Amino acid sequence: MHEQLGLGLPRTAVEQRQQSLPLDRSELLAGDLVFFTLGRRLLVDHVGIYVGEGRFIHAPRAGSPVRLSRLDDRYYAPRFAGGGRYWDAAAVPNDSR
């Protein structure tokens, strides 16, 4: 979705979070990024793409296949650090959200 809208994203999760419009969980739309703190430090070190209905796609670790997970999952819920948006929701047709 981001590429289709002509948006380039920074490489790291930290940079992506810093450069995106911050969102609460209740504001997420499909295509938004979701950030997590999975390591021992409280830095954002994991990112996924929100697909709606509390679900996101991500690659859990290098070499693992992309998978669909839930924000309310026992593992991910306490590690959720917020969402981010790089696109203007008002500019996207409703059927694309």
Keywords:
1 helix; mainly beta; endopeptidase fold (from Nostoc punctiforme); 6 strands; 97 residues; single chain; six-stranded antiparallel β-sheet
Task: Map the helices and strands.
Blueprint: H1 13-19, E1 21-23, E2 33-36, E3 46-52, E4 55-58, E5 67-70, E6 80-85
Q: Helix/strand-derived class?
A: mainly beta
CATH architecture: Alpha-Beta Complex
**What's the assembly state of these chains?**
single chain
Biggest beta sheet attributes: 6 strands, antiparallel
The CATH class turns out to be Alpha Beta
* Mean pLDDT across all amino acids: 87
Total number of helices: 1
Shape: globular
Number of domains: 1
Radius of gyration: 13 Å
CATH superfamily: endopeptidase domain like (from Nostoc punctiforme)
The succession of helices and strands, N to C, reads HEEEEEE
What fold name goes in the CATH topology slot? endopeptidase fold (from Nostoc punctiforme)
Strand order of the largest sheet: 1-6-2-3-4-5
How large a portion of the residues is in β-strands, by DSSP E? Answer: 25-35%
Segments where pLDDT lies below 50 for 5+ residues? none
